[in-house]
Amino acid sequence: VHLVESGGDLVQAGGSLNVSCEASGDTADIGAVGWYREAPGKRRELVALLRGLREGGFVDIADSVKGRFSISMDSAKNLVHLQMSALRPEDSAIYYCAVRTSNVFLTARSRMAPNQYDYWGQGTQVTVSS
Prior knowledge:
The protein is mainly beta.
C-alpha cells in the first residue's frame, strides 16, 4: 500500500483546512486508517482513526481535537480526509496518514501506537499562525 498526503498549508488561527490521503496498491487489505501528527520536540500523536473497515467502520477522535476534527473516507477514490476546523497554533505539525492491514486491535490503547500501523505516507505540513 502506498500513501500520499496532500492539502497541508499555512492558515490563520480559527481557520479550517482539509488534508487528504490517497491510497494505492492493495487497498482491499486496509483494515484501519489513522491520521497522526508530529510537532517538533513532541511524540507522534494519533488524532483520528477509521477502524474496522471490513465491518462497516468505526471512528475515534482524540480528546485534544474532539469537536474540531473529523475523518471521512471516499472509498470509490481511495481517499481518506481529515477535516480540521477552529485551528489553533498548537495544531501546527506534520500530519501523517497511516494504514493498518489488520481489521482489529488487541486493545483500545494499542490503537494509538504508531508501531501498530504497517504503512505510512510522507506527511503534509500544517502551520497555524496566531
